[in-house]
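Possible race condition, two jobs.
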Amino acid sequence: MLASNDGTPAPNGTSNHTNGKSYQRATTSANGMQKSALATNGASKPRMPDTYFGHDREEVTRILIQALSDMGYHTAAESVGRDSGFELESPTVSSFRTAVLDGAWGNAEDLLLGATAPAERTSQAGNGLVLAQGADRNMMRFWIRQQKFLELLEQQKTSQALMVLRTELTPLNQDQAKLHFLSSLVMCDSPDDIKLKAEWDGAYGRSREILLSELSRCISPSVMLPEHRLAVLLHQVKHNQINMCLYHSNARSPSLYADHLCDRRRFPTENIIDIDDHQGEVWQVVFSHDGTKLASCGSEKTVIIWDVPSFKILHTLGEREHRAGVGNVAFSWDDSMIVTCCQDKHARLWDLKTGGLLLDVSPFEEPVSSCVWAPDNRSFLTGSLDKSRSLCQWDLDGEKIFDWANNHRVEDLSLSPDGRWLVAMDDRNHIHVYNFMTRLWEYEIELHCRLTSISISKDSRHLLVNLQKDQAQLFDLVSREPVQYYSGHTGGEYMIRSALGGAAESFVLSGSEDGSINIWHKASAQIVEKLSGHHPRCNSVSWSPTDPCLFASCGDDGKVKIWSNAEGQRIHLEALHQSQESSGAESNGWHGEQPMGAE
C-alpha cells in the first residue's frame, strides 16, 4: 500500500542506537569519581573541531554510525557512538520506531502527536519528533491506522476493522478514494485475497518496515536520518562523476578509490563493419533487448535480422508478405517475436526462432507507422496514419484489446519500461501523453515544429524528441518541462530517428539529413563526436543496450554501419570466425575493414 524501499535491510527496522542529541562521555577515575573523558592527567585535552574538512562533524559521525549498522558492524557502530559522544537516535525516536515495528499503534500515535513542526519548535521540544517541512501529521496518522485496519482484516477481526475504518480512518478526512478501496477489502474471502488486492504482505512480512520507512520521510532528517544515507550520498557522487565524464564508456560502477575518467580510445567512433545486403534505402535499425540481434528495414519490403556480434543474417522476413516498405519494427521484451509496420497498411507478428509469420493485423486504411510492446509481453500497440484506428492495443491472436479512438494520426510511439507512460507523436507538432495503466489521456505538448521521432529513457523519466528544425529536446515526463536541448544535426521532410544510449544512458545519438551521426553528452549537451555516416541521409541510429561501446546506423545509401572500437572489432572478428567454422561458410555478405592497427 505504501512505497517499497530497495529491498536491503533497513536501519529503520533495526537499531541499537538512539539519535539526535550529543552528550559528553564520562569515565570512572581510579578513585571511583567520575571525570570527563576530555581530561587526561589533569590537563585539558584539545577540543575536537566542529567540522571535518568543512563538513559538520556530528552529521558525518551519525551517518557513519548508521552506515556501520547497515553493514552489520554493530559493535563498531556502538564504539563510534561512545568515542564521539554523538547518538544516532534520541529515546523518543527509538520508542517511535519500536512502537511501529511492534504494532503498538496507540503508542506510535501518542509519540507522533507530541511532534512539532520546525516553526513551532521550542527549547523544550528536543526530546520530541520534529516533522520535516511540509509534513502532514494527519496523513501520517492515516498511514498508521491503515496498517492497523489491514492487520485486523488479516486476523479476520472484521467488526474491529470496520470500527477502525468508521471511527479512526474516516474522521481524518484524508484520501476518500483510498477509504472506498479499504472498505471494499472487507468483502475479501481470505487473508491471502486481502494481501493480493491491497498489494500488501501482511503483519509478518515487511509491511511494518515499509510503513516506518514512509513515516521516517516525514520526520526531520536532523532527528531521524533518512534510510541508507551514506549509500545515497555515494550514489550521488558516482552519478555526478559519470555526468562529468565526456567519454563515459564503462558499464561498471565507478570505484570510490579514485576520481572517475574514461579513456577516449574506448569510445565507439570507428566504423568497423559496412553491411550492404539491403537493395534500397534503410529506414530503421534497432537492437534487441538482450543485445544479441539487430533488425533493419526500409524501402525494399524486407526486414533483416542479424546475429550480434558476428552480424551474420539470421532471418529475412517478409519477402513474400510485405507489399511495400517497412518503416518500423519492435522486438518483444523476451526477444522471441518482432512486429513489423508496413506501408501496405498491415502490421505483422513474426517468430524469431523460425522466421515464420504468426499474425497479420490488417484493419487499417492508411500505413501502419509504429509499434511498441506492452510490459507484459503478451500484447503490442500500433500507431497508424489511419485516424479511425490511430492507436490500438492487440493481443497475440490479433484481437483488439483497446482503441484510444483518437482523431489524430500517429507517426511514432514510445512506451516507458515501467508501463506508466504511453507517448504518441502525431504527423504535425504535438506529443500526446497517456497513462498506459489507466489508458487515460494525461497531457499534450505542442512544439510548433514538425517532429521526426520520440523515445523514452530506460528509467522511464525522460522523453527524447527529435525535431525538424535541427534540434533534439529532452523532456521530463513528470514535470512536463524540457530539461536539455541538443543542436548540430539537420532535420528534413523525412523521419530522422534519435536515441539514448551508452553506459548509464549518458549520450544522445541522432541521424541527420546531411548524413552525419551526432553524439552529445546527455547531461551537458556538449557535442562529443560528429561522424561521417551515410550519403545522402542517415535515417536511424540504435545503441546496443548491453554493450556501451557498440551502436548501429543506417541510411539512404542502403547500408547498415556498425560502430565500435578496437576491442569491438576484435570481438566481431572472433565471433565471425567461429560462426564460419561451424557453418563452413566463408563470408556473410558484409564488407569489413582490417582490424585497427593491422597492415
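Job #2 (started ~2 s after job #1):
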Amino acid sequence: MAVWACRPTRFPTRRTRPDPHLSVCGADAPSYNPARAAGLSPARLSDWTARAGVGVKRSGILSRSGGLPRFREMTVAARITAGFGVVLALVLVLAMVGLGWFHAVTRDVGAFSNSADMSQAAADADIGFRDLEVAVRDHLTYGDDQSLLDATWRHDTVVERLDALTKSASDPADVTAVTKAKASLNEYWTGVQRAIALRNERATLLITVLEPVVAQTREKLGLLKSAGGVDSTALASDAAIAVLLMQEHLSRFIERRDPQDSDAMRAQLDTARGKLSEMNRYLWVPGTRQTIGEVGDLLTKAADAAGKAEAAVVEEDTVRAETMAPNAAGIAANIGEIRRRADAGAVGLRGALADGMSGYTKVALWVGGGVLLVGLLAVWFVQRSVARPVHAMAGAVTALAAGRTDVALPVVQGDNEIAAMARAVHSLRATAGETERQRQEAETAHARLLREKDRVEKASHAKSNFLVNMGQELHGPLSDIVNSSQALMTELHRLGVEELAVDVEHIQWTGEQLAGLVDALLDYAKIEAGAMDVCLQDFDVNRLLIEVRERSLPAADLYGDSLAVAAPAGLGAMHSDFTKVRQALLNLLDNACKFTQGGAVILSAEKIERDGATWFRFTVADTGKGFPTAQTARLFQPFAQGGAPNANGKRRGAGLGLTLVGHYTAMLGGDIEVASEPGQGTRITLTLPAVYQPPAEERPLQVEAVGNAKPLLRVASYKPVAQLTQ
C-alpha cells in the first residue's frame, strides 16, 4: 500500500534570487503587485495600485531623460543586472585563461597518460604470461583438469591484454613488438597443446596397453611356475620380477628423464626374454611351449609400448625445448621492450609536464588574482545596495512563513521592488494563520497515514508467518499419510485385496494433492517475503518431459483426459532451476486436466533461437472450456480461481497454480503467452532461456508493460489442438 504524505504549503522566501514579478525591465513588463498575490478583487487591486504608487516610469536601465542614471537611482533589478554583467565579464576572462591552461595541461597529461597506460598494459601482459607459464607447468606436472582450465583461461587473458596493447600502441616499434609477441604466443600455445596431447597419449598407452600386458605376462608366468620343477619355478619368478622392474624403470624414466632408467628398462626386458628362453629348454610338459610363446609375444608388446612411451617423452621434451622455451623468451622480450620504451617516454613527459604546469600555474594565478580583486569590488557594491535590505526583508518573510504573525517588518523607503515587497507582506500576514492551520492538519493526516502503513505492513508480515507456520505444521502429517497409504497399498496388492488397494491409492493421491497445495502455499509465502532462491543445475529436457507426464497421468485419468507429449528427441539440456521448471509444467498440466474433463491435453517442447541465444518453448494445450483472454491477468493473480463452482458452490483449487507459474517464469527470465477461446480450449506457452541469466528488472504478473520493462504475459490468438500436431 502506497502512503502519500501531504506537506503544507509555505510562502517562499526567495533568498537566493529575486522573484520575476519583482524586477521591471521595460514599459510592457508587469510590475509586482502584492495585492494580486494575496488574492484581491480587480477593484481593490486597482485601488491598491493607486495607493502603493508603484509605477513603471523609472523601471529599467535608462533614466527619465533617456541617459544613463546614477547608481543610486537605478532599480534593484538594474543594479543586480549591472552586477551580474560585471561578474559575467570577469568570469568570461577567467574562463578563457582557464581554457588555455586546461588545453595545455590536457595535452601534456594525455601524452603522459598514454605512456603510463602502455607501461601498465605491458606489465599486465607480462604478469599474465608468467601466470600462464606456471599454469602450463602445473598441468604438465600433475595433469589435472583444473590446471588445464586455469591455463586456458590465462591464455585467453594474455590474448586480451595483447589486443589491448595493439589498440593503444601508436609507435611503429611498439606495433611490431606486439605483433611479434602475438606470433610467439600462438606458437607457444601450439607447443603447449602438442605437449598436452603427447602426455595424454603416453598416459593412454600406459593404462590401456602396458598395464594389461604386464598383468597377462605375470598371469602366464604364474602358470609356468607350476608346470615344472624347482628350476622352472625360479626362472618364472625371475622373469616376473624382471617384468615388474621393467615397468618401474619406465615410470622412473617418465618422471625423471634419466637415460639410465631407459637402459635399465631394456636390460630388464632382455633378462625376462633370457629367462623365458632358458625355460624353453627345460620344460617339456604339454602346453608349456605354447604358454612360453604367448609370454614372448606379450614381452614384445610390452617392449613396443615402452618404446612408444619413451618416444612420446622424448618428443614432449623436444617440444618444450625447441618450441615453448624460445617462444616464451620471445614473448617476454617483446613485452619488456614495449614496457621499457613506455617507461622512458613517461619519464621524459613527466619532466616536461612539471615545467609546463609551473608556468601555466603562475600565469593563471596572476590573472585569477586580478579577476578576483575586480569581482570583490563588484560584489561589495551590489551587496551594499541590494543584499542588506534584501536580507532584512528575507528575515521578516521567513519569520512570517514560520507562523510568527507578530514579527516587526523593516521600514524601507522608496518606490523600488523591495518597498513593494514590504507592503505585500502586510497582505500575506492576513493569510498566515490559515496557512498554519492547514499545515497542522496536513501533518496530522500524514501521521495517520504512516500509522496505517505500519499496520498494513505488520498484517502482511503476520499473514506470511501464518502461511509458513501452517504449511510446516501440515506438511509433516500429510507426508506420513502419503507414506503410510503407499505402504498399505503395497501390502494390499500383495495380499490380493485389489478393491481396498484402489481406495488406499485414492487416499495416497489425495494426500499428495494436499501436500502439493501446502508446498504451493509455502512457495507463495517465500515469494512474498522475497526469500525464494534459484538453485541451478543441468538437466535433460526430454527426461523432464517424461517425468512431468508420468506425474500428471493420475490427474488425467481422474478427469478422463488423454495426456500426450509431442517433442523431438535430443532436445538437449538446460542450465536452470529444475524444480521450478518442473513445478511450472506440472501446474499447467494439472490446470489443463482439471478444466478439460474427457478431452485431450498435449505437452510439447521445442528449441528456438532468440537474440543469438538458445531458448526452450514449452506449450500446454487442451480442448477444455477455455476462458476469455481479457481474464488472463486476473487468473495469474494469487487466489484467483477459474472454472465453474462444484456442487458445494466452491471452485476447484486454491488459486495459486498459475500465480506460481508466473513467479517462477519471471525469476528464470522467461515469458508466458496465453491463448484461449471459450468452449474451444486453452494454450499456455512458457519460453525459458536454456542457460539461466538473472533478470535485469522486476516484471509483475501483468499483460501491459510497466515502465521500460517488457510485459511478462502476452495474449495470442487461439489455435485448436488439432492444428498444433500438423
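The longest strand covers residues 600-610.
Logs attached separately.
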